[in-house]
Write a structure and sequence with these properties.
The protein is mainly beta. It contains three helices and 13 strands; from the N terminus they run H-E-E-E-H-E-E-E-E-E-E-E-E-E-E-H. It has one domain: Porin (Beta Barrel). The protein has a twelve-stranded antiparallel beta barrel. The chain is globular.
Length: 288
């Protein structure tokens, strides 16, 4: 009975915030380009987070399948494996139940549904809504790498492209994102933290390169290191069969990490559902 009470007390005093956990526990959601892809995309990336006493090397898998190309898609991702190295100062700050200087872990699984609310035209923007859930598969929480609790989020992105006919630049795209994020802060007493999400992405592109600059974060109500703000810059080489990207992320507030990420995305047409609303509408128009 005494052990059970101590365990409950310890869990209640865990600060479920990005300031006191690993870099992949509850990162700031990325601001997308405000589009739903036309075909299935599979991605792999490796990233290195460093600074402030925590070094983490991680491998991540991503997949997005458009059930209705340009209209509805399902997306999933997770950190499949990570290695980490910690300093005594970081352990003293996080106060883990199990103190270790290095180790490995697996991450949480995320699932997301994205859907078009309003399609972009010459004068109006694209509006995309999304619903995201985070499982509690990562861990263990005793080492302060991942939360042992679920989370969910709702957000809306508004995007607009501005074509430019120059030699080096063909398009400028602006994307804004707002939403709501909620995660449990204890499995025993069913408490939770609520946060407003926000982000902005400025995208420059031509036929073979895409350059993104985005800033975003979320604002938790507990103010216990739960208000991370990050800046990301990303350069992607666009090819017909493979997109290769490099990304750098800097934690401005409540996210004590620098992060370098290198990865690729492969479009796979054979795994793309063939049903299309556009084709069906076109066939109705040409029918006598």
């Amino acid at each position: 009975m005494l052990t059970s009470g101590f365990s409950l007390f310890a869990q209640q005093n865990v600060k479920y915030s990005p300031l006191y956990f690993g870099p992949n526990a509850l990162p700031v959601p990325e601001v997308t380009n405000g589009k739903i892809p036309e075909c299935t995309q599979i991605g792999f990336s490796t990233d290195y987070s460093f600074g402030f006493g925590d070094k983490t090397l991680a491998w991540r898998l991503d997949a997005e399948i458009p059930l209705l190309p340009k209209f509805i898609a399902i997306k999933a991702w997770m950190v499949v494996h990570e290695f980490y190295w910690l300093t005594p100062e970081v352990n003293a700050k996080r106060k883990p139940d199990t103190i270790v200087s290095s180790g490995w872990s697996t991450g949480d699984f995320y699932a997301q549904t994205r859907f078009t609310i309003l399609r972009e035209t010459k004068f109006r923007p694209q509006i995309i809504g999304s619903i995201t859930i985070k499982t509690a598969t990562g861990g263990p929480v005793e080492r302060r790498r991942y939360f042992d609790t679920p989370a969910y989020a709702f957000d809306v992105s508004i995007a607009k492209s501005f074509p430019i006919n120059t030699k080096f630049l063909t398009d400028i795209r602006l994307v804004g994102d707002v939403g709501f994020l909620c995660w449990e802060t204890s499995k025993s007493v069913n408490t939770q933290n609520d946060a407003g999400m926000y982000g902005f992405n400025f995208i420059l592109s031509n036929s073979f390169l895409t350059f993104e600059n985005q800033i975003g974060g979320y604002w938790g109500r507990l103010n216990n290191g739960d208000r991370p703000l990050t800046y990301r810059t990303k350069l992607t080489y666009n090819h017909k069969y493979l997109d290769i990207f490099f990304q750098y992320q800097y934690g401005i507030m409540d996210f004590p990490y620098h992060q370098i990420r290198l990865g690729f995305v492969v479009p796979i047409k054979v795994l793309t559902p063939r049903y299309s609303i556009e084709k069906k509408e076109e066939s109705k128009r040409v029918r006598p």
